[in-house]
TrEMBL record:
Domain Arb2: 32-251
InterPro entries: AB_hydrolase_fold (IPR029058), Arb2 (IPR048263), Arb2_dom (IPR053858)
Lineage, uppermost ranks: Eukaryota, Metazoa, Ecdysozoa, Nematoda, Chromadorea
Sample GO molecular function, one term: siRNA binding
Protein name: Arb2 domain-containing protein
Stretch list, region Disordered: 1-29
Species this protein is from: Parascaris univalens
GO cellular component: nucleus
Length: 320
């Protein structure tokens, strides 16, 4: 039920073995920075070389290496002004090198309103929706930075999951999984328990792209994460962008306890937010609308204004 049948991975052909390529923090000083490759993001967020030319694909190996440098660059951008996000490790390991991490705004857990961002599968990490769009178009097209700016303008707290951050290389050169973040779902569940549940947020919105919908639907089905009255008391809405979502518990919830779920679907229509019929009888609890683009990875940037109008409406309803 509620399956987006043409869902793709964020980086299509380049995702193979992406988690196996993840480097630990202790080895990152050996990784090249974006500047080492001769690239930078200009004032418009476009990736250019020293001659002002945009990125041009040459071969898969260099694409992946530059892509990893892009990941580190976005991590750094999120921690600098104007975003000023905090990077927080979690897990019981003694070393941060052996822990996964998330990003969040200062005092996110004390804000009245919170937005949680969950990317899809593949090579993307926290701060990204689609690597291809970041490298070939701009940060505004492929990163989560515009979402961070919109939340900041409204004074909302933000938590950015990092669900593909699953493995690291230990000091002996062995590949190991992070405790509590061995998979996207495990990462999501543990972040939810450790950071979202204890927060003081009165109303929470989730934005999940692609396989991020699988993460939030698994959180919803986990009784230790999603108490019987969680939807009624705190989770205002779930915003999906061309996603995969299956939460049987929605059918069992009463109207007052069911979060509003809206799905912006890749569709030939260039109009945004046009209602679409349900896929099947079970889809009645997920409102499907057009995303304004027929390209899977473009749905999050194209539908952003409509998504924030929806979240604002839900947050206002919680105030009434």
């Amino acid at each position: 039920m509620w399956k987006q049948t043409h869902m793709m991975d964020e980086s299509s052909s380049e995702i193979k073995g992406s988690n196996d390529r993840e480097e630990s923090d202790q080895h990152r000083h050996q990784m090249k920075s974006l500047a080492d490759f001769g690239y930078h993001f200009d004032k418009d967020g476009v990736m250019r070389d020293k001659h002002g030319k945009q990125f041009v694909f040459t071969d898969q190996q260099s694409y992946e290496a530059i892509g990893e440098a892009v990941t580190e660059e976005i991590y750094n951008i999120m921690q600098r002004a104007p975003y000023n996000l905090r990077k927080t490790h979690f897990g019981t390991a003694c070393n941060n090198d052996e822990k996964s991490f998330i990003f969040h705004t200062k005092d996110f857990d004390n804000k009245e309103y919170m937005v949680i961002l969950i990317h899809g599968r593949g090579v993307v990490r926290a701060g990204q929706w689609a690597r291809r769009l970041i490298m070939n178009e701009s940060l505004d097209r492929g990163s989560q930075l515009p979402y961070l700016r919109e939340c900041s303008k409204r004074g909302w707290g933000v938590l950015v999951m990092n669900t593909n951050h699953n493995v690291f290389t230990d000091r002996e050169g062995r590949q190991r999984t992070f405790e509590g973040s061995g998979s996207a779902i495990e990462h999501g569940i543990n972040v939810w328990k450790q950071f979202v549940m204890p927060s003081k947020a009165r109303c929470i919105a989730v934005v999940a792209h692609s396989a991020g919908g699988i993460v939030i639907s698994n959180i919803m089905e986990k009784r230790s994460c999603w108490m019987e009255d969680e939807g009624r008391t705190r989770i205002g809405c779930i915003c999906l962008t061309d996603s995969f979502f299956e939460a049987p518990s929605l059918e069992k919830m009463g109207k007052s306890s069911r979060p509003c779920v809206r799905h912006w679907v890749a569709h030939p229509s260039k109009e945004i937010g046009v209602p679409l019929p349900p896929l099947d009888d079970h889809d009645v609890y997920v409102e499907r609308v057009t995303a304004g683009t027929n390209v899977h990875e473009e749905t999050s940037p194209v539908a952003i204004d409509d998504i924030f109008r929806f979240i604002e409406t839900i947050f206002k309803e919680f105030n009434s």
